[in-house]
Design brief:
This protein has 116 residues and is of the alpha+beta class. It folds into two domains: 17-66, Nascent polypeptide-associated complex domain (Ubiquitin Ligase Nedd4, Chain: W), CATH 2.20.70; 80-115. Helices cover 35% and strands 34% of the residues. It has four helices and four strands.
Length: 116
C-alpha cells in the first residue's frame, strides 16, 4: 500500500485525473549535452502523460563520456522496400542500391549519390 492507498485505487484515481503511465522497454538511454553524454545502462523507463505533456522517469546505471570519444556504430539496417525505392528512383541495379545504402546509411542520401 502506497501512503495507505490500495494500488488499484491509486490507478483509478490517476485515470480520473487524466494521468497515464507506460513502461518503455528501453535498452539504453543517452542524454547528450554540448561536451558530454550521460549513458544510462539497464534502464527502467516510465513515460507519464499528464496534462497533454509527456514526462519520463529513468532509473539505471549512469556513466559519462566525453562527446569526442569513439563509439561503436551499429551496422546499417535496410529493407527490401528501401532498395526497391532507390532502384525505382534512380534506375540502378539492386546491388548498386544496396552499396549506396551501406555507404550513405540513408535512402535520400543514397538516391542523391546515385543520381550524380
Amino acid at each position: 500500500m502506497l501512503g495507505g492507498m490500495d494500488p488499484r485505487q491509486m490507478k483509478k484515481m490517476m485515470k480520473q485525473m487524466g494521468i497515464s503511465q507506460e513502461e518503455i522497454p528501453a535498452k539504453e538511454v543517452i542524454i547528450r549535452t554540448d561536451n558530454k553524454e550521460m549513458v544510462i545502462s539497464n534502464p527502467q523507463v516510465v513515460k507519464v502523460k499528464m496534462g497533454g505533456q509527456d514526462s519520463f522517469q529513468i532509473v539505471g546505471e549512469v556513466s559519462e563520456r566525453e562527446v569526442g570519444e569513439k563509439q561503436e556504430s551499429e551496422p546499417v539496417k535496410f529493407s527490401k522496400e528501401d532498395v526497391d525505392i532507390i532502384v525505382a528512383q534512380t534506375n540502378c541495379t539492386e546491388e548498386q542500391a544496396e552499396a549506396a545504402l551501406k555507404s550513405e546509411g540513408d535512402i535520400a542520401k543514397a538516391i542523391l549519390k546515385l543520381k550524380k
